[in-house]
Amino acid sequence: MRAIVLDGPVTPEEMRVRRVAVPEPPAGWVRIKVEAFGLNRSEYHLRAGFATNARFPVIPGIEAAGTVDLAPGGEFAAGQQVVAMMGGMGREYDGGYAEYTVVPASSVIPVRTDLDWATLGALPEMLQTAHGSLHTGLAIEPGQSLLIRGGTSSVGVAAAVLAKEHGLTVFSTTRNPQRTQVLRELGVDHPIVDDGNVAEKVREIVPTGVHAALELVGTNALPDTLKATAVHGTVCFTGMLSDTWTIPDFYPMDYIPNGVRLTAYGGESEDLPAEAFQRYVDLVAAGKLPIRIDRVFTMEEIGAAHRVMEDGAAVGKLVVRVGAPAT
């Protein structure tokens, strides 16, 4: 089969498609014929050498969409439409950047949809992270206000759409003033240009601060995000778009404003129940959940896709459609 294999950290331009053996699934695992997979910041960290739990060689990819090819334990039927995500994919064992991937049955979610494969391939990790951040990390409620820091990322886009669907007022940031219109088209109530002083801009609109905030940029933006949040409000740290992960000399009494709660989210596929994923997919298919795909690539264009991701040039999700080689 065709697959992208990493022997160690490389530049995007050094990524190549190889021919490798089709993997065999043991009991309790499922072999999926991959039709599409989304790109994620986690894979950039792995490819660039930032991942602390990396093992090489490895086929990267923490998600995939396709059909069941073989399930020795009978958990799924051959030909069944499924998605898979997390659970060690692309790190502890080979992931989704291939024509076939073998994953634990616990990481597989069945789905029924007429969506095209590229669209379905964009959804698993994006929806899982957004859903988990909003409901596990922030415990959002209708009528609340939400700030999304890093709003034009794929998770930021999904979080805005899911939050609006849940009845929240959404503030969302972008560093590029030209992207505020994209946020408005997604239903964001208050697009904000991030110049480092988002808290001040938020409190000009809602003086007491927002009920909830989703931090996707990193620890460099976190203090300002905390300042934008109301007393008894919650900030969930989920993303590190800036690649700034740690807080030097962390002193909670000085760092966290009085009465503001700081949580984190880094969940797994079980945080997105199958019925919730199916509902979201159905809403996407009905045009009621406007998920944004920035670009769709072939496997042979994986280097170009990673270059776009590394440069932060995408608004929404980057997807690879697995199929015939590019000509």
From TrEMBL:
Any GO molecular function: oxidoreductase activity, acting on NAD(P)H
Chain ranges of the Enoyl reductase (ER) domain: 10-320
InterPro entries hit by this protein: ADH-like_N (IPR013154), ER (IPR020843), GroES-like_sf (IPR011032), NAD(P)-bd_dom_sf (IPR036291)
Origin superkingdom: Bacteria
Regions annotated as coiled coil: none
UniProt cross-references to Pfam families, sorted A to Z: ADH_N, ADH_zinc_N_2
Keyword annotations from UniProtKB, A to Z: NADP, Oxidoreductase
PANTHER family in UniProt: QUINONE OXIDOREDUCTASE PIG3, QUINONE OXIDOREDUCTASE PIG3-RELATED
Stated name of the protein: NADPH:quinone reductase-like Zn-dependent oxidoreductase
Organism of provenance: Kribbella jejuensis
